[in-house]
Amino acid sequence: MLAESLVALAGAGGTALVGAMATDAWQGVRTGAARLFGRGEAGRQGAIEARLEHDAELVARAPEPGRVRQGLAPGWQVELEALLTEHPELAEELREFVERTVAALPRAEQHWTLNVTARDHGRAYGALGGNVVVHEAAQPDPPRGPAPDRRGEAAEGPR
After folding, report:
1. What is the pTM of this model?
2. Residue from 51, 26, 37, 32 nearest 105 by CA
């Protein structure tokens, strides 16, 4: 299982990546992302570039680009989590990619990242673009003591 800090990093990476789509920063971000995912494998890098271009085109054509970005970000987070699971040594490189990407974004897109964490059966609420996402740790059933002895209550009747 991926460490919580790496899951948060992947989330920030996915959000920054889609935040750059259809902006002036996109070509540089796309190249950096493809290189990060490709790890020197030309076939994999080409497939990632094609998917990135497809997603960027969806954002560019959308009447509500922010809504499309919100839909795409979780998928890229999952991709980055898979990459970090396979190559945990890339965490620092991803961190630097996120910092460079956020710095390159237009001002309006720089504040589009939200990370929310719940711990110890706590609740955390986050709102991004009008949505509220609730993350909650699974809570075990409360412990149950022995059942009270109720034999004979019916025969005795009310007191």
Report:
1. 0.67
2. 26
Quick one: pLDDT at residue 91?
A: 95
**Rg of the chain (C-alpha set):** 23
Helix boundaries (H) for 62-152: 65-86, 91-104, 107-110
- Lowest mean pLDDT of 20-29, 39-48, 143-152, name the range: 143-152
- Taking each continuous run of H as one helix and of E as one strand, the counts in the chain are 7, 2
Beta bridge partner(s), residue 125: 134
Helix, strand, coil percentages (3-state) for the chain, rounded to 5, are 60, 10, 30
CB 98 within 8 A of CB 29: no
> Regarding beta strands 131-136 and 123-128, do their DSSP bridges make them parallel or antiparallel, or are they unpaired?
antiparallel
